[in-house]
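Journal club side-thread
Mid-discussion, someone asked how the predicted structure for our own chain would compare to the paper's figures. Pasting it here so we can look after the session.
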Amino acid sequence: MPSGLFALLDDISALVKASAASLDDVPAQVAKTTGKVSGIVIDDTAVTPKYVVGLDPSRELAIIYQIAKKSLINKLLILSPAALLLGYFAPWAITPILMVGGAYLCYEGYEKVHSLFSHHEKDTERELVEKITPEELEKERVGSAVRTDIILSAEIMAIAYSQVTDQAILNQIIVMLAVAVFITVAVYGFVGLLVKADDMGLHLAGNKYPPATQKIGRGIVKFMPHFLSWLGYVGTAAMLWVGAEIIAHGIPFTAHVLHDLEQGLSPMPVVAWFAKALACGAAGLVIGFIIEKLVVVVKKIFFSAKK
C-alpha cells in the first residue's frame, strides 16, 4: 500500500513537472500570436477613437470602458470557447468563418471610403446626430463599436487558436485567455490615452508650467485632431488590407499568389510588405464594392417582396 501511494505521488509529481515545463512556453506563444494579429490590432486601435468624436468629452473614457468591457466579455466567454470547440469538433469551419469576417471588414472599409467622397451620406449622418439625444447617440455609437469589434475579435481569437493547435489543451486555453486580456487592455488603454491626449495638452499649456512645457502642451492640442484624422484613414486602410488578406489566405490560388509576391521581393522586406499591403488593400476595395452592390440588390428584393 505505501509503495502504491508513493508510485501515485511520483506520477503526480511528473505530471506537475511536465505541465510546468509546458506552461513555460505560454509567454512565447502569446508573443508569437500577438505578432500574427498585429494588423487586426492596428485596425481595432485606429477604428475605435472615431466612436467618441462629437460626444461629451467627460463621457469619452466611460464610453471606451463600455466598449472594452464588452470586447473582453465577448473574447473570454464567447469567442475563445467557440474557437476551441470549433477547432476540436469542426476545424474545417474556421477558415470559412474567417473569410466571412474578412468580407465584412472589406464591406465596412469600402463604406468608409465611399462616405469620404459622398456629401449626401455626411449630411445624413449630421441630420441623424441632430435628431437624437446625446444618450441615444452614445448608445448607438457603443453598439456600432461593439459590432465592429466582435468581428475583429473573432479574427484575433481564430488566428490565436491557429497558432496553438499543436499544443496541449491547457496551453491552448491559457494562451487564448492571455491573448484576449492582453490585446484588449493594450488596445483600449492606448485608445483611452489617444482620446484624452488633448486634455493632457491643455493641462500642460496652463500658466503654472514653464514656457517650454506650455509650448509642448499647445503643440499636443494642435497635433491631436490631425493625428486622429490620420489614424482614421489608417484604420480604414487596415480594414481593407486585413479583410482581403484573410480571404486570400482562405483560397489556395490567391494564397499562392501572395506567397510568390513576398518571395519575389524577399531581398527587400519593406518593399515586400508594402506591395502585399497595397495589393490586399486594392483587392479589399473591390471586394467591398461588390458586396455593397449585392447588399443593395438584396435589400431591393426584400422590400419588393415585403410590399
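Post-session note: The chain is about 85% helix and 0% strand.
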